[in-house]
Each structure stands twice: as structure tokens, then as C-alpha cells.
Amino acid sequence: MEKLLEAFITLFVIMDPVGILPIFIGLAKGMPSIEIRKNINKSVLVAGVLLFIFLFFGVGIFSLFGIDLTSFQIAGGIILLVMGVMSVLGVMGRFIKTHGNDLSVPVGTPLLTGPGVLAVTIILVNENGPYVTAIAAILALSATWIILSNSSRIYRILGEHWTTVISRIMGIILAAIAVGLITDGVSGIIS
């Protein structure tokens, strides 16, 4: 149960649905509510499909390209560290562009399931096995769907200030997770 909770928290923090609320609301501004709901469903579906492809086939993909887990841990940790720093500094949203009325790109990927989530998913499978990681992924995606489905309400309650504060705190947690991944990867190479 402890491993499941840890895996869920890790995936949820990296997905950071609260942190993307302002971006999502900005992208969905002016859309009819039925179109927003379709985009939420499609975005979470895209995020889930990518996550589960890497959950079940990531190790095989690595073998195909000759990548070992410790190298991927270090690379994933560096990417997460950059994302954490960008989140703390508040520059993450500046890199997102709209793609018409289809928000599955950029919301589904790279915002929800980007390089960080993919890297951590493979590492979690290695540490906890595919079943614990799959359950954690389902829980994280479900929580994300609930948050995005209630995005305007949550944003109204929290306001721009507290949404930013939460996003920055998630960025610090993300950076801490990244440092742990880099340290584990380096330790793996040394030993």
C-alpha cells in the first residue's frame, strides 16, 4: 500500500493538474462547455494511452535502442529537474501554443504525459512492478480528470494567486524527486 501511495503521489505531482489549470483555462476560454468536456476526455485519454504504452513496453523500447535504466534515470531526473525549476520560476506556460480547438496536444501531451511522466513510469515499473504502477497511473489519471472537469470551479475558489502558489510548490517537490532520480542513477552507475 505504501508503494502504491508513493507511486500515485509521484505520478500526480509530475502530471501537476493543479499547476496546468491556468494554462488549460486560458486555452479553453471561449469554448462551449460541451467542447471543453470533449477536450478534457480526449486529453486524459491521450495522456493515459502514452503512459500505458511506456508502462508495459518501455523496457522493451529501451532494449531496442540499447538504453540502460540508470542512464534513463539520470536523463529523466535532469528533465524533471528542468521542469521543476521552470514550474517554480513560472515559465512553464510560456512554451505552450494552441492547436485550434483540439487541446489533447498540448494538454494530453506534453503537459500531462510528457518526458518526465514517461521516465518516472519506467522507473516505477522497475521499482514496484507493472501492477502497482498501473493502479497508481489509473488513480493519477482519474484525479487529473476530476480536477480538469472542475477546473473553472477550482480556479474560482483558489484564484490565480493560490493556483500559482500550489504550482510552485509542486515544482519544488518535482525538483526534489528529480534529484532523487539523478542520485539513484549515479549510484547505480558507480556500483
Topology:
Blueprint: H1 2-15, H2 21-28, H3 33-65, H4 69-89, H5 104-112, H6 115-128, H7 130-149, H8 151-190
Helix pairs in contact: 1-6, 1-7, 2-8, 3-5, 3-6, 3-7, 4-6, 4-8, 6-7
Question: So what's the overall shape?
Answer: globular
> Please, what is the average pLDDT?
86
Helix proportion range? over 70%
Low-confidence stretches: none
CA radius of gyration: 16 Å
Oligomer: single chain
Q: Please count the beta strands (DSSP E, at least 2 residues each).
A: 0
Q: How many structural domains can be distinguished in the coordinates?
A: 1
Largest sheet: none
Strand content: under 5%
SS element count, helices:
8
What series of H and E elements makes up the topology? HHHHHHHH
Q: How far apart are the termini? A: 29 Å
Q: Which structural category do the helix and sheet elements fall into?
A: mainly alpha
Features:
single chain; 191 residues; mainly alpha
Q: What would you say this structure looks like, in words?
A:
This protein has about 190 residues and is an all-alpha fold. It has one domain. It is about 85% helix and about 0% strand. The chain is built from eight helices and no strands. Helix 1 packs antiparallel against helix 6 and helix 4 crosses helix 6. It is globular and about 55 Å long. The mean pLDDT is about 85.
State the gist of this model.
With 191 residues, the chain is mainly α. It is built from eight helices and no strands. The relative contact order is 0.23.
